[in-house]
Amino acid sequence: MPLKLSVKLQAFEGPLDLLLHLIDKNKVNIYDIPIAEITDQYIEYVRDMDKEDLDLVSDFLVMAATLLDIKSRMLLPAEVDEEGEEEDPRQELVERLLEYKMYKYMAEELKDRQLDAGKLLFKPETIPEEVMKYRPPVNLSELLEGVTLTRLNDIFQTVLKRQEDKIDPVRSRFGQIQKEPFRVTDKIVQVLELAVRKRRFSFRRLLEEQSSKLELVVTFLAVLELMKMGNVVLMEESGNAGGDDLILEAAGGLADNTEKLAEEIAVSMEA
């Protein structure tokens, strides 16, 4: 428990730090303080203190010596500085008091904040699932900047016609072996994997690699869905503006976990 010295004077009663504070405020003139009385109280108090606590004893002695020094300088004729102004013997002490008050105020302020913080209870951060799954809408105007839907459709129709031209009219009479139906979500996974692996690839070539008209249509829908979700970007081929092909490029930050991303897209499509 910190020790405090109660200083009793005719004009003031309180801890010594408050007496020094009042000197700064000029509420008690240091010239009128009975320094001898304060010093006697210091010596009497120091005698009763634990002599092993040299730091605390020295603090009282230094402060008493400071007051005695100021008292003696106030009795002497005032010294004049280089600018012709009288020097105030209390100036150095006042500066120390101002610094002391600042740190004391900050300490009390931090203590109050600590006490206030102990009274607060914070709810753990929770983010609703629908917020976590939210994806900002894609601006199609920006997405297709410099690329018209007509060109996109023209490429699709051209490749689609080539698929139809591949059909042998003779063999088609004998029917064909039915394959497993193509799903848009499956194609989304394939296109995503291609985007992650190559980063940039030909839109026309992607369509031309499909084996049937149905697979071609499903692939086209998958590309449109990925563009809508902002996972791939369609742009002009470098040095071939207005040409017969477009370039698909993976969007920045496209995750490698294509399966999970495809599941999220599938859920959003079914919603």
From TrEMBL:
Supply the alphabetized keyword list.
Answer: Cell cycle, Cell division, Chromosome partition, Cytoplasm
Q: Name one GO biological process term.
A: DNA replication
Its localization reads:
Cytoplasm
The main place the protein resides is cytoplasm
Q: Name one GO cellular component term.
A: cytoplasm
Outline what the protein does: Participates in chromosomal partition during cell division. May act via the formation of a condensin-like complex containing Smc and ScpB that pull DNA away from mid-cell into both cell halves.
Task: Family membership, please give it.
Answer: Belongs to the ScpA family.
- Self-association and partners: Component of a cohesin-like complex composed of ScpA, ScpB and the Smc homodimer, in which ScpA and ScpB bind to the head domain of Smc. The presence of the three proteins is required for the association of the complex with DNA.
State the name under which the record lists this protein: Segregation and condensation protein A
Q: Which organism is it from?
A: Lientehia hominis
Which gene is the coding source of this polypeptide chain?
scpA
